[in-house]
Amino acid sequence: MKLLVAALASELDAFEDDLAGFERLVTGPGKLQATYALTRRLDDGGIDEIVVVGTAGSVDASVTGVHEVAAAIQHDVTDIDGIVGQHVSLPPRVETGGGTATIATGDHFVDDADAVASIRTLGATLVDMETYAYIWVAERFGVPITVLKAVSDSAQDDAITDWRSAVAACSVELRDDVRRRYGV
Hints:
By secondary structure, this protein is an alpha/beta fold. Helix content is 31%, strand content 26%. It has a five-stranded mixed beta barrel with strand order 3-7-6-4-8. Strand 6, helix 2 and strand 7 form a beta-alpha-beta unit. Helix 1 runs parallel beside helix 3. It is globular.
């Protein structure tokens, strides 16, 4: 069984409630909710692969569309030496084993130019609130994970308004990508 995961139900609007071979999980936004919900589900067993779908802000204007995430970093942590992106006890980077995009995860919605400039220096092209947690949990359980993110906004200026108007279209793009990849 594959586990179809999204942070918000709206990111799954274009998906059928009953998708053959998939179980659905909506975790809620942010790293803590993502970690909690995914851990609880994986602890019950029976999942062969995790497929995460969701929206992401772009920190590079040329990055649009759907991207498979290769790696995630945290943009909202600092270690004891003051190094941004380094956690005191977690790895600085977690990887999926596929994809090409690097995403920066943090527990706040990024919507300003200064935050985007800071995130760019960490080497990410996308930003979200859950992916690092999903990958980290999947690694703990030894379950393969694929993360697909549709760009919904530029993570600047009025990004929350852009996200609200784009989430439905992003869900359709993600549904098309899952259909192409998995034949369902």
